[in-house]
Design brief:
Two copies of one chain form a homodimer. Chain A is α/β, with parallel strands linked by helices and 228 residues long. The first copy, chain A, is 40% helix and 9% strand. In chain A, helix 1 (14-27) links the parallel strand 1 (6-9) and strand 2. Chains A, B: It holds the Pfam family QueC.
């Protein structure tokens, strides 16, 4: 019997690299296609990390450039934005945002990425798409396109709109980052190669929300972040 | 009170031009942003039609190029495909396809287009997106990304994933093409400027499924297609 294939939305960070390891474990690396996306992020450096991780696993990936879609957005995560990336945790930011998404929310990014992956997955005959959204990012509406409500609707839309050909797997939709790291450590994920920091400078800034989240996740697993 | 804004997925065909006219009637043309998309379609000519229609309405539109997303697809609608566009109606094609989408189904195209429109609509502060899917295209699973089931899930995904900022309007989701034309005639839609034919040659071929559908829709309204 022919084994099924999976596409993985793969940014080179902790969550999507753990997704990649899970997909490789389930389908075999010859049946996994990682998809990395340029979208004008300040931390394009994450895509260099992605390349190094693919070398580690000895697999090829695909790269897509969706930068023009966000040309009119002033989201602080994007190059050319007039906004600075906040130096505070998501919880602190949410207290200031009055229930609105945080300033690093890229407009409907995950919906666009999942749709793009679905179009390509159909062309490449993949049956599954892996997507690394997790509870910490969805909390308090920080990133509405990481929520379980969004995921359930998008999963249904993609299943129906693809002629029932594509299933979305979001293994961390009810897990926090510490639980993701726990799963990744079991799978031997090379976390020393991953990149998370939104600033995209030479070294992680340690002050942006994703640096704060990441450090905490490793501490909760009784270890120091191996990328530091 | 500030009037709300709407984005319209606008290809220059019968359905989306009627959507455009409805959005202009409801929001005023200064509050409507048409979005046209290159995706490698053989009938790129439709985007010339789109331009002429925008001139007619005296409004500006946006254009996005998503061709790279479909680079690996062999769908017959796309340039570079080894497949010919079938010269038969959708009903005839469905009898041959055994319940699978027709060969002109572009993989998850409408999901990708709606997601792209959502990202841009958020940047441009639009609250609505108009989408011209209708019953004839959804019938028998010809285009699964035109079905009401797909639409309801996608609408929910976009509403939730946008932080409840974007609503999708699909005014024809339960209407056929003849009913769309009826509504458009009331609104004075310049159908003589629209383009539907998949072949994209000098004149409509008259033999592809969309030519067949279109001609029938005008006949049912007691008139000859004004573009012929």
């Amino acid at each position: 019997m022919k084994r099924e294939k999976a596409m993985v939305l793969f940014s080179g960070g902790v969550d999507s690299t753990t997704c990649l390891a899970m997909a490789i474990e389930r389908f075999g690396k010859e049946n996994v296609i990682p998809l990395s996306i340029h979208y004008g992020q300040k931390h394009e450096k994450e895509l260099e990390a992605a390349k190094n991780i693919l070398k580690h696993y000895e697999i090829d990936g695909m790269v897509m450039d969706l930068t023009p879609v966000f040309a009119e957005s002033n989201c602080s995560l994007l190059q050319g934005s007039t906004e600075e990336i906040p130096e505070s945790s998501y919880m602190e930011q949410l207290q200031e945002s009055d229930g609105n998404p945080v300033s690093t929310y890229v407009p409907f990014r995950n919906g666009l990425f999942l749709s793009t992956a679905s179009s390509i997955a159909l062309s490449k005959e993949c049956s599954y798409i892996y997507y690394g959204a997790h509870v910490d990012d969805a909390a308090g509406n920080a990133y509405p396109d990481c929520s379980e409500t969004f995921f359930n609707a998008m999963k249904e839309a993609i299943y129906e709109g693809s002629g029932k050909a594509i299933k979305i797997e979001a293994p961390f939709i009810r897990k926090n980052k510490a639980e993701i790291v726990k799963e990744g450590l079991r799978l031997g994920v090379p976390y020393e190669l991953t990149w998370s920091c939104y600033e995209g400078k030479e070294k992680p800034c340690g002050n942006c929300a994703t640096c704060i989240d990441r450090e905490k996740a490793f501490v909760e697993n009784g270890m120091v972040d191996p990328s530091l």
